[in-house]
Amino acid sequence: MVAVQSALAARPGMVTGARALSHFGEHAAGWLGLAAAGASLNRSRRRDWLVAAAGTLAAHAAAVVVKRVIRRQRPHHPAVAVNVATPSALSFPSAHATSTTAAAILLGRITGWPLPAVLIPPMALSRILLGVHYPSDVAAGVLVGAAVAAGARALDGALGGAPDAPQSRTEGTSAGP
């Protein structure tokens, strides 16, 4: 944690960007808002957007439950700067990493974009840079989020949802005769 903060905190915009990610991911609100917007704007894929919202919310809830069972306290060391306020003193697993992972997997399934590769690392790193999570909190959050996303996809499939293949971004356009 100290190494991450030493390497990145002094770079312009790093802490500000990490704080912005933190606020966006608080209680999964940003991801839930995106899924709700998708559900309202993309009627043909509404079910998929709602599955993404439900999976993201379930991932956040799972992280909260695990935090209350494990009860690991957030980092508290004089060498670690805490750069953002948190709603609780519990840290394991990172709910931000958990909900972001679930959202990235489930939203990536809809869009066909490589969202896990683009979204998970910055959120995970931001939690360490902000001094509010140990690396193991973040790693556990990613694992829990991936497991919940897989469960949401499996449940949706069992209930007759769309197959796992993402919709082509050119679907619906004329490609031939």
TrEMBL record:
Which species is the source of this protein? Mycolicibacillus koreensis
Where is each Phosphatidic acid phosphatase type 2/haloperoxidase domain found? 49-153
- Give GO MF terms, alphabetically: hydrolase activity
Keyword Transmembrane carried by entry: yes
In the bilayer, the protein is annotated as: Multi-pass membrane protein
Q: Under what name is this protein listed?
A: Phosphatase PAP2 family protein
Q: Where are the transmembrane segments?
A: none
Q: Which UniProt keywords apply?
A: Cell membrane, Hydrolase, Membrane, Transmembrane, Transmembrane helix
May I ask which residue range the UniProt record assigns to the signal sequence?
none
A single Gene Ontology CC annotation of this entry is:
plasma membrane
Q: Where in the cell is it found?
A: Cell membrane
